[in-house]
């Protein structure tokens, strides 16, 4: 339900942009964070599924839960395909951001904050990858005690962080322009529905704490859905109350 709501929200935004032939007020950073985080999630999902090194290190660390002769590490194939689909639809909107770039205002575009965040994350992950593999195959433990499975887990944490804050650039852009023009109301509603559905699904399908190893590694935890719900509620407040009577006034970027 979460992934389906996200998909419909993005499709509604794509349709809105196409009808208005404009991307005024739409955040580039929001879509960049979503695309990059989902690409990272696909990468770590494939690592959990097919890396014998990760399987070995998990078996050494948790022999009761991940025995080498037992079932594979749990990765939800449906979620993996849904991530792929979301990347495709987000890229469609990203294409519109490029095609209709003449309609953006002076504060739109890829921000320097996004650039430095991605640069720092990339440096950190390359560092942990180098450390975790420097002594292979003689020793599983890498430099500074970093294992390869920890390198992949660090990327997983990075994915959750990006998903938690992905709506923040849009909130900031709305604040800078005192306006929510360019943002499809259906996109906001479907984003809210999908986030709330994510929270409810975790309660309905909750797994006993002792069976944590049965939770798919490519799923999102509760705090991500809570952060997204709060963010979308703030956008809804901006659109339906704070800036409801405001018209766009920022000049377009030449």
UniProtKB/TrEMBL annotation:
Keywords: Membrane, Transmembrane, Transmembrane helix. It is found in: Membrane. Pfam families: PQ-loop (PF04193). It is a multi-pass membrane protein. It comes from the Eukaryota. One of its GO terms (cellular component) is membrane. This is KLLA0A08602p. It comes from Kluyveromyces lactis (strain ATCC 8585 / CBS 2359 / DSM 70799 / NBRC 1267 / NRRL Y-1140 / WM37).
